[in-house]
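Dear H.,

Thanks for agreeing to be a second pair of eyes. The structure we're designing against is below in token form, covering all 442 positions.
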């Protein structure tokens, strides 16, 4: 593959295809060859899909030559997390429990992307059934972190992030239930968009907790995230023209922004300083609603996850990594009255959050309070695994509990991100702020 292709954003690749500078078939062949020859190929991709990819590329090339492209990303090759159904191909959600599962149809978001001309390169590794923020999976594979192969990549969309970070896909599509797009994006210096729950279709997406599951892209740029969101929802892209930070009011959320380790803390403060210098007004404060939600409604995740997968897990518990299995089993003790009361409480707390943050354009916090953990130590040290997993997910979970949309941006310090959170369905506002922040932080 030409070196400059691997460094180009999906949007710039699409522009080059439109200008006749890049042929989609040649581009797809180059990605397939680079992926097949990569030393971490089997840790990143569960499988490549060359027959499908090349057929789609040939169709994209014909459209490009005849001036009938479906959009900016027509002919651009991307990867898909292995919980998006692909017709006639295995979709196993990182779990031996689902080995041999072959769906008959594509997931709706994959079908939309295909109709828009995007090329499916293959399926990427992930945490078992998407239930961990670390990205560790000893049952199938643990993808490498782009900054240090001995560290975890973040999860659960671990392979999606690695495919982009290592230049083996122009973008990756993942899912986010408690941080699973934003964490691997931050740990691998990418942009990661968590969409509002319900904005993008979950049809054909293997669930973890369907009440919280969301679909989102992992990309090199905010512009790429904008166009992939538009493709997957069948809408026009958000207009980023004139995006700026001047006069924007941001709330830095305590204690989630200060109770962090030194590396992410320093990177976050540096990012804040640059946003402030660009004209943003930054205030610090806390929102009691999220503190209460963290203490009282986390059982909603485990209760729904175990309700969804309990029978499958207990039929063959030995097929699961024990620490993931025990996370699921925490949901066994959640009663129906507790679950109903928990959702009633969470809906009230979401209203409180909306009221208390209404004066701000966005809420800011470090994407993760820690740096990526050491993979081998996680396997040998139970206490380390539990502590790192909980801390890794703490900040991103704010967005899922409060039902928000959010994006993580690289800070410029390896494996650290700054997270921007906006109200539900406010993706246009979020992405314009993110584009302006990206320009300042680059």
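And this is the sequence the design step returned. I haven't edited it by hand at all.
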């Amino acid at each position: 593959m030409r070196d400059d292709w691997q460094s180009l954003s999906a949007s710039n690749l699409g522009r080059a295809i439109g200008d006749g500078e890049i042929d989609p078939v040649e581009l797809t062949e180059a990605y397939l060859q680079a992926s097949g020859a990569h030393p971490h190929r089997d840790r990143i991709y569960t499988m490549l899909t060359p027959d499908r990819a090349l057929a789609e590329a040939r169709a994209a090339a014909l459209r490009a030559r005849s001036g009938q492209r479906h959009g900016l990303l027509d002919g651009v090759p991307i990867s898909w997390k292995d919980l998006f159904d692909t017709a006639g191909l295995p979709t196993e959600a990182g779990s031996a429990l689902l080995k041999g599962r072959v769906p008959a149809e594509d997931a709706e978001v994959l079908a939309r992307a295909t109709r828009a001309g995007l090329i499916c390169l293959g399926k990427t590794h992930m945490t078992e059934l998407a239930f961990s923020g670390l990205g560790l999976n000893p049952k199938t594979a643990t993808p490498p972190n782009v900054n240090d192969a001995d560290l975890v990549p973040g999860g659960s969309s671990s392979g999606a992030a690695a495919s982009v970070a290592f230049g083996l896909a122009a973008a990756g599509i993942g899912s986010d239930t408690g941080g699973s797009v934003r964490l691997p994006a931050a740990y691998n210096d990418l942009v990661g968009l968590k969409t509002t729950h319900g904005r993008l279709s979950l049809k054909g997406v293997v669930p973890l907790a369907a009440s919280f599951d969301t679909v989102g892209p992992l990309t090199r740029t905010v512009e790429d995230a904008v166009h992939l969101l538009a493709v997957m929802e069948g809408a026009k892209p958000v207009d980023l023209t004139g995006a700026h930070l001047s006069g924007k009011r941001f709330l830095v959320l305590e204690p989630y922004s200060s109770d962090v380790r030194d590396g992410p803390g320093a990177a976050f403060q540096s990012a804040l300083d640059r946003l402030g210098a660009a004209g943003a007004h930054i205030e610090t404060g806390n929102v009691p609603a999220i503190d209460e939600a963290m203490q009282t409604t986390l059982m909603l995740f485990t209760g729904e996850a175990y309700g969804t997968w309990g029978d499958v897990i207990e039929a063959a518990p030995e097929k699961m990594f024990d620490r993931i299995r025990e996370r699921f089993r925490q949901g066994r003790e959640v009663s129906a009255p507790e679950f109903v009361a928990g959702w009633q409480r969470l809906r009230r707390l979401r209203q409180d959050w909306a009221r208390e943050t209404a004066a701000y354009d966005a809420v800011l916090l470090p994407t993760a309070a820690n740096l990526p953990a050491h993979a081998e130590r996680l396997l040998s040290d139970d206490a380390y695994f539990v502590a790192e997993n909980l801390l890794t997910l703490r900040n991103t979970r704010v967005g899922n509990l409060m039902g928000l949309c959010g994006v993580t941006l690289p800070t410029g310090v390896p494996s650290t991100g700054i997270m921007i959170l906006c109200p539900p369905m406010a993706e246009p506002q979020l992405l314009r702020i993110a584009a302006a922040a990206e320009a300042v932080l680059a």
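Two observations from my side: The chain has a mean pLDDT of 97. The CA atoms of residues 178 and 306 lie 15 Å apart.

Warmly,
E.
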